[in-house]
Amino acid sequence: MPPSPARHTALPAAPGVGYKPQHYAQILDTPGPVRWLEIHAENYMGDGGRPLAQLRALAERFPISVHGVGLSIGGEAPLDAAHLARLEHLLGWLAPARFSEHLAWSTHDGAFLNDLLPLPYTDATLTRVVDHIDRVQEVLGRQMLLENPSSYLAFAESTWDEPAFLQEIARRSGCGLLLDVNNVFVSAVNLGFTPQSYIDAFPLDLVEELHIGGHDTDEDDHGAPLLIDSHGRAVADPVWALLDHTLARSGPKPVLIEWDTDVPDWPVLAEEARRAEEALARPRLAA
Amino acid sequence: MTQRAFHQALLDARRPVPPALTDGAGRPAGRRYAVYRNNVAVSLTEALASGFPACAALLGEANFARVAGRFLRQHPPATPVILHYGAQFPAFLDGLDGLARLPFLADVARLELALRRAYHAADAPPVAPEALAALSAPALSAARLRLAPAVQLVRAPWPIAEIRAYALGQTARKPQGGAQEVIVLRPGYDPAAHVLPARGHVFVSALQAGMALASASLQGGPGFDPTDTLALLLAHGAITRIDTGEPA
To answer: Does the distance separating the beta carbons of B31 and A221 come in below 8 Å?
Structure first.
């Protein structure tokens, strides 16, 4: 096992970016306003080679947030013990500042579907998710953060609204929350609610990380706008405005730019980070 | 509704969208559900295309998407570690009808899988290139060589290294020749495919199985000379330990 870097134990209330290997040299040479990095846990579950070598070097310089996309926290089946053990191994040697996962499911009947699938917000789901988070936090020996999803549809059986549901999960399990502001905007357009009201109802004191990213625009069967959480373009202006709205209430938090497909050259991503840095400065000016 | 119902309709577009899924106004979800169908199929197809780029180039985009679509429904990932996804893809291609024009496709897929495994294999510092030359003849015969975890062997009745390079546009030369024994080596972090001298495959397999150098050479059959293969292994950092049976 490689030696643990263990340099950085907290994320700063500053811009971070989702790490892409094509940016490796430039992140080290010209990070600009970028002060921390996020990696997807499952991309670093090989035995060795360049991915792990790069991650070790980056962790010497930057606080790292590990974002899992494979635990299937909302799955009906028990958690995958083998996958939890892989996470335990990664977090053990890397000792990242944060670990987060999604309010979603992705595995059924032994098949991993490589997407974050939606959950009905019911008491039964709540109990199951809390049980799974309890287990994750017990095995990993740390608090995890749970992220709000982007929604394209709703379940007729849901009895909770999403902010209250997440707040109750956090209260019962002791997990923290990761608030993806783009997801809030995408869900608000898709399901017809006001994104600012969602933010105002959200327990911002439990939020340890904010995410923003780009989305695509499509239409549903009735010609209504259907936004897709693609992470494939620049952050949209109304999402920047919603970030301002959030930061004005939450105060400065770590803000992550997510750009996962059609990944741009480093200067473009660094410019998005600069814009996040400006947004982070605003609430302090107003205070 | 159960995740089973949601899951079944995800991978089978002939099934109706599960009921009790709605838009924000209570109307049936309709093509909103298709976002998830699309995400699953597209993301796994992209994972296969990035893992098997030469196969994707040989089939062309539309054909590859069709083949990948069938594969991902029969063999969805068994774990969330997508960097390992597609281990059954070569065998799946073997069993696929309609590929008579590309009889070598499954073996090219085997080579691509070997390269990917090498990329993610555990690191292991190599011995110095002159380490073997320093041994006496008897010590050399009795030595057991430990090879790096990244070392992979692929044997095929086609010139798969050339076919792959041609498919990826790395060479303009049309692939020629017949059966090929290929070894994947990874000095540093970049794996590369090398064509082995004749019968090098059985020799390297014997080394990997822990045979002493002289015995492994005998596996190559009468007249087999391991010199070129050993030079290749040494030059590409593939030998990580020389066990002479003497206390170090």
So the answer is: yes
